[in-house]
Amino acid sequence: DQQVKQNSPSLSVQEGRISILNCDYTNSMFDYFLWYKKYPAEGPTFLISISSIKDKNEDGRFTVFLNKSAKHLSLHIVPSQPGDSAVYFCAAIGRAGNMLTFGGGTRLMVKP
Amino acid sequence: EAQVTQNPRYLITVTGKKLTVTCSQNMNHEYMSWYRQDPGLGLRQIYYSMNVEVTDKGDVPEGYKVSRKEKRNFPLILESPSPNQTSLYFCASSTMFLWGGELFFGEGSRLTVL
User: Which of A6, A89, A100 has the CB atom closest to B45's CB atom?
Assistant: First the structure.
């Protein structure tokens, strides 16, 4: 059973609007959460992260929100740009810090 | 340039023919890991290594072997490949522990087993 789930396989957004990508997890031992972005024919690249002691982390147009009680995190992209079109993976790390568990990914398409 | 290099990038092979996918990193990272990416399943960890001579199983280790004889190299070995190992494979490296440190990925190796 997947411990990290991204229930929306795809999302389409108009350029300039907000993109919200969601992620749910089941393991309460997860301590640190990350988002990775992947373009075709490339490896994933790190985007933004959040520790379990925080509920929000911001980096430019990207903000990650963590709701520990709901075991839910989301990535907000404002404003969305066509270059943001990619597959986004959320991932979680346990307290041992040695394994990263990924969700299934959400394909974001930002239309001009 | 800091990078993780995988070879080959593309490979078509037949069932049972042993193959090795090499991975090398030039960032002096202690931690290295292999993942496979399959549609709808995201990236699943096959094996990881915290340092030289230290390896451990991830979530889907069956049918794979690894070795970590040198810090920079972490090859993935398929002793007897089967069609269910057809996948996109990624090698990654990081500093000792993953908290707060990014995982740097290679460009991927697409393997087809006929």
Answer: A100
- Looking up tokens 């749910």 gives A24
CA distance A111 to chain B (A): 23
Tokens for B62, please give them: 């069956």
What's the CA gap between B58 and B54, in Å, rounded? 13
pLDDT per residue over A20-59, tens digit each? Answer: 999 999 999 898 999 999 999 899 999 999 999 999 999 9
For the CA atoms of B29, B32, B38, B39, the dihedral, rounded to the nearest 10 degrees, stands at -30
pLDDT at B100 over 70: no
Q: In which residue are the tokens 């030289």 written?
A: B52
Interface membership of A46 toward B (CB under 8 Å): yes
The predicted-structure confidence for A73-106, as pLDDT tens digits, reads as follows 999 999 999 999 999 999 999 877 778 899 999 9
Q: What whole-number distance in Å separates Cα of residue A100 and Cα of residue A35?
A: 11
Nearest CA in chain A to B46: A99
